[in-house]
Amino acid sequence: MAELKNHGVCGTKRSASDETEAIKFDPKKSMAMVPSLLEDPAAAIANTRHEFGEHGGVNMSIEASATFTVMEPETMRRMFAGELGPDRDFFIYSRHFNPTVLNLSRQMAALEGTAAAYCTSSGMSAICAVLLQLLASGDHVVASRTLYGGTHALLAHFLPRTSNITTSFVDIGDLEEVEKEIVEGKTKVLYFEAVSNPTLAVANIPELCRIGHAKGLTVVVDNTFTPMVLSPARLGADVVVHSISKFISGGADIIAGAVCGPSKLVNSMMDLRQGSLMLLGPTMNAKVAFELSERIPHLSLRMKEHCRRAAEFAKRMKKAGLKVIYPGLPDHPQHQLMKSLVNSEYGFGGMLCLDMGTEEKANKLMNILQNTTQFGFMAVSLGYYETLMSCSGSSTSSEMNREEKELAGISPGLIRMSVGYIGTLEQKWSQFEKAIAKVDGLVKS
Fold first, then answer.
1. For position 20, what pLDDT does the model report?
2. Residue 217: closest CA among 235, 238, 196, 232
């Protein structure tokens, strides 16, 4: 678990006296240290505790140990009893807590403005752990009908089969429908993506949170598409989940996830007897955590450029007569809503969609963009410095059947594009224009 309280910039080793004087962790104390709800995410990250290396290095040391020693036998009993913990630099085993992973978790909590966070081995492990902690057999979820394919499959197929947990999928933009589907005493979670994958529909986070909280629900928001751009917890969400593999990593070389939320929830997920994270063990490797912690400080710079280029490309694609979907365009259905929710200076996100009408035309364009003009790569995932393109219906949303895709607004020719920032903007636009000139019968807006 990550605490936002300031322990100072320089850590010191524990002594035997530290062990006897340490007190049990009180999560209420950390709540007072949560950054202002209005604080810029970059400012919040800059205010987190900086870990120096063991020998004074400006970068922290990697704690690669799986297990940790204690100075006195009684200490181990007290740690397992919950009397001593990572908030006082007491560690048992790296599946529980690891100092390097804990530092990354602090950064993630600051990024999302939550009291705590825990980093996991993948985005799906973070989502699964949250839902399994919040839900029990017979419980019900109300979720957006437009979700990442893996999340949809988890809610539609896996959880009903294994845990008797059911989900009603709704148009998350229809607030009346959302409220209508909530079953008093049974519905426990409202789940949606801040900006939907892949259709880029924008959720009215404050209103959805108002509805959920009025009915006693826990509101869980996936913010993978819009780190820095949107801050769901600052807008009222209880829990924010991430696939860190995407924009936060930025290198398309790491699989990782995060749960950001209240201390009480994260503590419960790490409980020795009942915690989903503790018992399922989606542990992040300390070396991965180190890599990621070195990238978060420049996330704001990367996101600004992703967003700037996506906005400019979307505008030019629209002018060229293409059917483009981007929240930053005035004709996007939720443009004004997103404009009212975004953090200043971060734009409208680094994702855009082109609807080519048919899968055949989508594939033809992507083939030319990659293999002829070198505009980008045909690959799933997002947040890379190169532009990544995929036909969502036959790739990242392939877990959904035809009817589910139609309801979600995923057309057969929808190209999801994660706009990169390598090269110059004009260079990349020229490559795109050359590709478009080679495709006949373009779908016009």
1. 36
2. 238
Write the DSSP symbol of residue 426: H
User: Could you tell me the domains of the chain?
Assistant: 16-294 (3.40.640.10), 298-436 (3.90.1150.10)
Average confidence (pLDDT) over 159-185: 97
Torsion angle, alpha carbons of 355, 356, 358, 362, to 10: -110
Closest CA to 196 of 410, 415, 342: 410
Q: Rg of the Cα trace of the chain?
A: 22
Phi, psi of 201 (to 5 degrees): -80, 140
Which residues, in sequence order, are bridge partners of residue 60? Answer: none
Residues in the chain, overall count: 445
> Which candidate, 187, 4, 11, places its Cα nearest to that of 112?
4
Distance CA 157, CA 166 (A): 9
Three-point CA angle 47, 48, 52, nearest 5°? 115
Whole-number Å distance between alpha carbons of 111 and 299: 10
Q: 10 Å Cβ neighbour count for 70? A: 18
202-247 confidence digits (pLDDT tens): 999 999 999 999 999 999 999 999 999 999 999 999 999 999 999 9
- Which residues on neighbouring strands pair with residue 415, listed in sequence order? 354, 391
In this structure, what token pair is assigned to residue 102? 């804990």
